[in-house]
Amino acid sequence: MSDSSEKTSAGSQAFLRIFRSLVVAGFIIWLGLSVLSNASNPESESPFKLGLDLAGGSHLVYEADVSSIEPLEVPELMNVLKDVIERRVNIFGVSEPIVQVESSSFVTDEPIQRLVVELPGVTDVSEAIAEIGRTPLLEFKLYDAEVEAQQEALRNLDSLISSSSSSTAVVGKVKINGEEVNNDILPFSDTGLTGRYLESAALQFAGQSSGQLSNEPLVAVKFTEEGGELFAEITRANVGRQLGIFLDGEMISAPVINEAITGGTAIISGGFTPDEAKELAKNLSFGALPVPITLESTQTVGASLGAEVLDHGVEAGIFGFSLVILFMLLWYRLPGLIAGLSLVSYIVIMLALFQMVPVTLTAAGLAGFILSLGMAVDANVLVFERMKEEYQKGAGSREAAMEGFARAWSAIRDGNITSLLSAIILFWFGTSLVKGFALVFGMGILVSMFSALVITRTFLIALPSVKKSDSAVWSVLLGSGLKK
User: Fold this and answer.
1) Which domains does the chain have, with CATH numbers?
2) What is the DSSP string of 367-432?
3) What are 307-322's pLDDT values in tens digits?
4) In 3D, which of 376, 429, 445 has the Cα closest to residue 106?
5) Is 34 helix (H, G, I), strand (E, B) or coil?
6) Residue 402, Cα to own-chain centre: how many angstroms?
7) Is the full-model pTM beyond 0.85?
8) How confident is the model over 46-95, as pLDDT tens digits?
9) Exposed site from 270, 287, 379, 452, fewest CB < 10 Å?
């Protein structure tokens, strides 16, 4: 009765091992077919996203002027700027734009904030610049009588000198109370209220009783809650003063504040035509820039060049994959074949993640994926070497496999943790090019651990358990090296 129970238990365990391996194999096959279907269907909801260097397009780098902004507010404003540019580019139909914020290294003397804009499919750089350049910078500034007085004094001095025909004196930089007086700028001071706080803008036409010309085109702007409170505070504290409205540095209107304005709305009038007011309202609605930006560099990648890079990358991946599989088969035989199946599973899972997350694949990311193929099989090598030691001592193949996984786990864990830390550091401090590599490499490390410790293990323990001393074919296939 005891022998019968043991046989039944052994049969149940064998069934479970085979069932688990079939479930894993079925899942990988289903996932592979899903990846193939998504890749071959041009209307798929989860296609592969190719970066600029693989799909072609325009690469623009802007530098943001944050010199007048509190350092603690810079990260928030740069994120607002990123969102604004994304909305702006999306409105004009650019597919899958990539907008990233980059900061200079902490070792630099002066921190620099950059905005990297990648527009796949847009190979006309002038068109790409125009898409972003049309976004206006909206500012509200208060008339400053003191600055006006200083400028008037400077103008009187200029007039006095020029009235003297014999004088050759030239007025240079003039400072009053330690501050330089500049006649070239309008006497308005910043209030801190900019397009950063703008929620929407709409075209309106003035009525007879609005204080404006009848049917004059106006732009009504609505601020966010924070912007509305700031606008109300500014108007409440400065009744009787002019509030200048500046668009891209040029004053378009300077109404006098008659009373505190609450409710978070303001009217912009500047002698617009209906078309001009409509265009201004549209531009402001799509996002007014919270900080000024300057175009620093441009780069264009042709579609044919991107396709060539992609083809070479795929060829390199196939070549590297083939060499790894060949080595595993020659040296580890049947376990090497299982490692090959695990490596195929790893590739399928990675490709599925690229589609579902989704990950934007760049040339650097593709290089990271190819490199991770070798990393993916590294854990299998550690396990198989430990397994070989136990198998040579006379242990059964299944027992040797279980012991091999147990003994190799610490080395696999430590090696992958250090590699993962490297990927995290590269992603944290790297530029957009390095981040693509680091992201794919980090994902590859995690998936490789799963494929080695779950998929390889499931298939390996499902095989019949034999010993090296057995004369069966299985004992040869489960051996290692170029000889038995």
Assistant:
1) 19-49+302-477 (1.20.1640.10), 57-134 (3.30.70.3220), 139-144+187-288 (3.30.1360.200)
2) HHHHHHHHHHHHHHHHHHHHHHHHHHTT--HHHHHHHHHHHHHHHHHHHHHHHHHHHHHHHHHS-H
3) 777 788 788 878 878 8
4) 429
5) helix
6) 42
7) no
8) 777 777 667 777 788 888 888 777 788 788 778 878 877 776 666 545 55
9) 270
